[in-house]
Amino acid sequence: MHLIFLGPPGVGKGTQAKRICDRFDIIHLSTGEILRTEIAVQSNIGNQAKLFIDKGKLVPDNVLLDIIDNRLKNNDVQKGYLLDGFPRTIPQAEGLEKIMKELSHSLKATVSLSANEDELVQRLINRSLESGRSDDAQDIIRQRQKVFWEQTAPLLDFYRSKNLLKEVNGVGEISKITERILEVLI
Ligand code: AP5
Ligand code: MG
């Protein structure tokens, strides 16, 4: 099974991705986590990515497409994967289609999680107390929301037009939201 989780910062992509991946025994691929690991080891990719992440901006498409192109050729993803936070722009989505086609992987669905912005900002402010994430500062949290609406939201229509979009309300109890996601995946 091949899935995409799409949604604004703080909506619960990571939280729900872990639960859905456990359920279907597929690999969770969070591009945010991959980039944060690169930053921690101070690799070239990490040093470059940090300049964007710390400002709440998107890392350039070619960097992400190279990461995903390499990652999807690994043996461990052959049982399936959930892409969390990728793609985030139309060029990334088009690049992903090409990569998946070459590998004969077919996308089952793009799950779009939603919540109102006040809820999202509050969740991330709460998380900032312990996450240690450089982008969980209040002004950067707002900037990330803005970037979502400007650069990532066009993907909703992109996947809707391909009949692949499943919209799920991301507000409520975590377990209840998992149930909602499972319902749209059947
Ligand atoms: P990324 O790591 O993907 O962050 P994000 O999209 O900003 O989203 P978050 O991880 O903050 O939120 P989430 O939706 O995963 O929610 P979570 O489950 O943690 O990206 C970070 C940066 O990396 C980007 O800004 C960009 O610079 C770069 N990047 C990454 N991918 C890229 C790409 N493809 N292209 C270019 N650049 C890229 O939940 C949030 C909080 O809410 C947690 O504390 C959680 O416990 C809590 N919570 C979860 N569910 C609920 C609930 N139902 N009720 C109450 N609280 C809840
Ligand atoms: Mg996340």
Q: What are the key terms here?
A:
single chain, five-stranded parallel β-sheet, 9 helices, Rossmann fold, alpha/beta, binds magnesium ion, 186 residues, globular, binds BIS(adenosine)-5'-pentaphosphate
Can you walk through the features of this model?
This protein has 186 residues and is of the alpha/beta class. The chain has one domain (2-172): 3-Layer(aba) Sandwich (Rossmann fold), CATH 3.40.50. It is built from 9 helices and 5 strands, in the order E-H-E-H-H-H-E-H-E-H-H-H-E-H. The protein has helices at residues 13-24, 31-40, 44-53, 61-71, 90-102, 117-131, 138-152, 154-160, 174-185; strands at 2-6, 27-30, 81-84, 109-114, 165-169. Strands 2-3-1-4-5 form a 5-stranded parallel sheet, with helices on both faces. The longest helix is centred in the middle third of the chain and has 15 residues, at 117-131. The radius of gyration is 16 Å and the shape is globular. It starts with a strand and ends with a helix. The model has no long low-confidence stretch (mean pLDDT 97).
Topology as a string of helices (H) and strands (E): EHEHHHEHEHHHEH
> How many structural domains can be distinguished in the coordinates?
1
Quote the beta fraction: 5-15%
Strand order of the largest sheet: 2-3-1-4-5
Low-confidence stretches: none
Number of strands: 5
CATH class: Alpha Beta
